[in-house]
Amino acid sequence: MSRKSGGVVRLGDTGSASSAALRLALGDDWLAPWLHAHNKLRDAGYGDALCRAYGAASVDCAPLVGAETVIGMADVLSSLSIKSGVAAAEQLCRIAPLAARRTADASRFRSWLSLLQRFSAIAPESAMCVLDRMDDLLVRLNVSQLELWLLAGVRQAGVDPERRLQFFSLENPDALRLLDREAEGQSFFDMERRLMAWMVALYGVHLNVQPAPLARHDGAGRRASFGEGFVQMPAHFPGYRRVQAEALFRAALAHVGAHVRFTRKRLEVGDLKPLQIAVVSLIEDARVEQLAMREMPGLRRLWLQFHIAEASGALTAQSRFARLSRSLIDPDFQDADGWVRKGRDLFFAARDRWDSPEISRAIGNLLGNDLGQLRIQFNAKSYVVQPPYRDDNLGLWDFDTDQNPPQDQTEILLDSARVRPDDTPDTHDQARNDPPDASDITKARPRAPDHQDCGIFAGRYPEYDYEVRIERPDWATVVEYPANRGRADFVDASRERHQRLIRKITAVINAARVSRAERERRQTEGELLDLDACIDAIAALRSGQMPDAAVYQTTARRRRDLAVSVLVDISASTADPVGEDGERVLDLLRDSTVVLSHALNTLGDPFSLAAFNSNGRDDVRYTRIKDFDQPFDKAAGMALAGLNAGFSTRFGAALRHAGQGLLTQPNHRRLVLLVTDGEPADIDCPDPRYLIEDARRAVQGLAARGIDVFCVGLGNANMENERRIFGQRGYVQITSIRALPEKLSTIYMRLTG
Amino acid sequence: MDMHQYQLTKEPYYRPIGREVDLFTASYAARLPVMLKGPTGCGKTRFIEHMAWKLGRPLVTISCHEDMTASDLVGRYLLDPTGTVWSDGPLTVAARHGAICYLDEIVEARQDTTVVIHALTDDRRILPLEKKGELVRAHPDFQLVISYNPGYQSVLKDLKESTKQRFCALDFGYPDAAIEAEIVAAEAQIPVAVAHTLVQIAKKSRNLQGQGLNEGASTRMMINAGHLIREGVTLGEACNLALIVPITDDPDMRDALTNAVAACA
């Protein structure tokens, strides 16, 4: 409550900000307008907490950005409260001082406020989580970069608030990637494709590169790392930008490639001390680099630029290592230090034996002992491999020994530098993806759901009763369940597994591409004359016969115009194992879907992906993985990875529902592609024929509306029923389930010409 | 018919890698049809030219393509002022006059076209010209040779089994580095050391086959690069001109290849 008396404004209760503090911060002239703004907030009913927070924020921010700006903030708080809730507005107040410091400038701060205001209008549900992370975001991004990133997220996630939340809470790895890109401009993954192609060219090996998790000591400690079947690369090396960064990535990759090629076996730690481990690793680094340079001399130039050690200065362990490393690669580098010279002489004396990995251990041991005798301090905890392009050497060593390693030393080494292979960002709860106990294999069974079940009613469809030959309207209810989010790297891993197949399919599709014009000869109409047909016609004329009037030829371009809805059966039987190694039908189904999606993307056919199962006619469960207007992106991949097998298989309703989705597609041909391992069955249908007949009816119904249905059946199920439902040419049986990834895509392509 | 135009007068340079010269000579002696299998630019055409020269036979070469019809191979009626006149196609010419007929990249042609050769490739050695009403019996010196690039195998484009099984086949590939360097050095007339680097680069590009490139650099491309180097172009530029720019338009692939060249130089 303020009262004006005379020319003096008296401040009433403005919460934690004392009136004196406010006066000091705002200045006398601005007090009244500020109060006005404050009271508007109060009167709008947003609550005392917000008013108090506003007061506190004003006190902190006004010295940095000026009173006028602070007054303007009230408006933003108001819109934010309306769109995203009062909690978000309070959070904004809490971080405003920090933002004011980071933006350091009144107009930038205002831009920041306005950006948040706009953002909350577009993506109200995500404002809170963006504000929660604002501190980290502003460390890395300036306001315009922040704007670009927010916009990218909105564009990427579209109108779906769930997806937006996923993005802005940084659960979606694309979000991180885009963040990196905005922040540093050039992350490894921007250049990944051409760098990895270069690696394939150089070493003939396709490496599986993952982003390195942020090491415990960030910043200068980041290094590439490799292990059994994987390579981790930091998204960027701090302090390196643009061209330098690219050279560093190249050098790092080439170095790892040299290890992969020439470090055949891991070395046993035995009872080596950390110092010795470090020296042996250093020699091994030099050895593999020399072998690589024999074949590719240009790599020397690439690596040499990062060896900047000088032959002078303090003789610490770290500096000795750097100088030794340089001596081993730089033929022009002279170093007077005894230890460095000894190392160099030993290394080059063994030139003829560089092929054998034992020399690293032999030479490394000797040198390590020497250093030990010189009583050189070596702090394993803070040791970082230099130069920065070299890997952290963890991939060289076999730490899983039966002997008990000296606890303290090895642990220190491990502790300081270990990067666990499974510490990738975005590992979700593994338990969610484990299938339910599949020991009870019956065709249809009810099961209490073991996770949150929150489906949305999506439609009621009729069902056909063959015995009385009527279609019961609104008999089956389709319920759409949100997809569980599985592992974010599932799709990439799947693509790795089926690399060759994917390449082959791409090659086939490209070979059959639309752009080729096909000549159609002997047409009754066309732009050109078909010479052979003309000659035949003249010959016929001359011999007194009627000539064939089809003497033209045309060129036609083959165009594809079809949309497909892929429907995958995830009933309980898909949890059955295939073969010995724990792979289930569901896993193969998932992989096949990944491969098929790739084919569909390459072909350019619009497609949707969904999975279905059923728990009685009132709960035909439909899970959307990807809709027509969405790309097959990480979110779709995670939805695919999160599928769980269970329940039963009610074809009819699922087909009808999928068909419904296709009706809105404008394409000439529309297809539902059903992938199933069994026949229709459900817990409330004791008569097996009932659902079979209904499915057949559903297929006919869709055909009448111009939607084709094709079924890919897995395993040795009875083909009779399939034939009944889909027609003689409407299905295909795949007995070898393992071949599904390949067969599915080939079938699709043959099917659709 | 003047077959002189098909005769090779100068010895085409060919560096044998295995026993292919002897094996082909034996196949020709038995007039067996032969299939030369291998990637593009590795010496198949040069080999058959060499053999034709060695055996003293005229060589009729047909480059196959998708629009080729049977008429393009066997012949057709043409119109002239008096009416229609039959004109022999190259396959018929070879069959009549005892030349070696070489169908290059036969998999490019459609399968309904290639069946025309079936009757010529078994012991009947006949070529029916239905439209003319003539049955051509192949000259005793006639032989059919085809080239086939297995890298283009796909669901959609492949030789029919019935066609493949009529032929004896010789495998051609990129030779060992030392031999390939010898060939490049001889053809481009550059020092063997330089040729060696070029061959290394070619090998790196071949690693990318199927992983961004359809095929790696062929020996022919390396020879072209060698010519450029002899004319004073630097190694990097020569590789760019002769290898990187023709082989791909993808900027990432070009970048990868450029840097692979840098790594090998």
Quick summary:
Chain A has about 750 residues and is of the alpha/beta class. In chain A, about 50% of the residues lie in helices and about 15% in strands.
Q: How is this structure best described in words?
A:
The complex is a heterodimer of chains A (753) and B (265). Chain A is an alpha/beta fold. Chain A has 4 domains: 3-184, no CATH class; 188-417, no CATH class; 490-511 and 560-752, 3-Layer(aba) Sandwich (Rossmann fold); 518-556, no CATH class. In chain A, the strands form 5 sheets. Chain A has an 8-stranded mixed sheet, with helices on both faces. In chain A, strands 3-5-4 form a 3-stranded mixed sheet, with helices on one face. Chain B has 12 helices and 9 strands. In chain B, the strands form 3 sheets. A 5-stranded parallel sheet of chain B has the order 2-5-8-1-9, with helices on both faces. In chain B, strands 3-4 form a two-stranded antiparallel ribbon. In chain B, a hairpin with a 4-residue loop joins strand 6 and strand 7 (134-137). In chain B, helix 10 (219-230) packs antiparallel against helix 11 (235-247). Classes of the chains: A alpha/beta (753), B alpha/beta (265). The A-B interface holds A 193-195, 197-198, 200-204, 206, 250, 254, 295-299, 301-302, 503-504, 507-508, 511-512, 516, 519, 531-532, 535, 538-539, 542, 746, 749-750 and B 66-67, 69, 71, 76-79, 83-84, 152, 154-157, 200, 204-205, 207-208, 210-212, 214, 251-253, 255-257, 259-265.
